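Case study 2.
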Amino acid sequence: MTVPERRVRARRAGRRFDLRATSVTFGLAAIALVLTGWVVRMAYDVAQRRPVWVCVLALGALTAVLLRRRARSRTTGAGAAPRTTDALAAATATALDELEEGRAAERVEYARGEETTAVLPAEHEELDPDEFEEAIADLCRRDGCARVEVVGGAGDLGADVLAVAPDGRRVVVQCKRYSEDNKVGSQDLQRFGGTCFTVHAADLAVLVASTDFTAPAADYAERCGIVCVNGERLRDWCAGGPAPWELPGPGQDGTDPSGRASW
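Prediction:
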């Protein structure tokens, strides 16, 4: 009688300890932990600087979870999704409005900090020559000039302020901060007239002074086409009067050259 041989099931070999796999696992876990900490730190920094965006992201995550649960249950998903989407859109719009208002407030504060410091008429006598040039540049900026630049100093070749007028003309300004008893003479005009057009390519040459001009200086300006702005005209400009590029050119207002000293 033949007895059938019973098959003996082989016992599963126990898992062997793999040092390499364990090291890799712990290494990946450490990297994941570091990345998680870095992400949390960045999220914390963003939450401090932009709390509105954190609210938007939180609402988005909550909405995604709700939509996923609704989709699984298939009960009221069709009606819940539009309501949730509308709520998310409204919350996002509100958050963006708040963010835009914050940016607008920042722009206003920045603009306040960047406001020009155009001097008042009574302050001209208190300025030194460098401050006087900066004040004239501020007036140019205030009245719409672009690319305003103070270039006065050694080697300026007669130009203290360069600008582009609102009508596109290149304006070259020389500033004279003199005492009340010292008028701008013809030599000052001649030096300026020799460079303003040929060297600086001025479309409009302007000499702004804190005092008046002598008659010979006014006559030279008349013949060369230089606009002169004396202390009185400067005070009017500071108070909101016409800028030099808005004034009639020499010989276009009906006055004779001897009257140019009162411009």
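The mean pLDDT is 76.
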